[in-house]
Design goal:
52% helix; alpha+beta; 3-stranded antiparallel β-sheet
Length: 77
């Protein structure tokens, strides 16, 4: 039986701050959402509204999140 997206997201452990610091300069939105503890859908929604708590870079239809902004946000929490 296929697992739903919500089940898959729950199965992945939330990365630690040290894990995030070891990531490349940019990451995709689902990976950033995992670090933030929200769903990718919620983060995409915030990005579209210009309310994302992290810096994003558009690449055509694709969007990536800067790891530096993730680290800065997570360190302040």
């Amino acid at each position: 039986m296929p697992r739903s997206q919500a089940d898959t997201e729950k199965a992945q452990p939330r990365p630690t701050l040290d894990d995030v610091k070891s990531w490349p300069a940019t990451v995709n939105v689902p990976q950033a959402a995992l670090a933030l503890g929200c769903s990718p859908r919620q983060l995409y929604y915030l990005i579209e509204r210009g309310e994302a708590p992290v810096k994003t870079l558009p690449f055509g239809r694709r969007c990536v999140v800067t790891t530096h902004s993730l680290v800065t946000l997570l360190e302040s929490a």
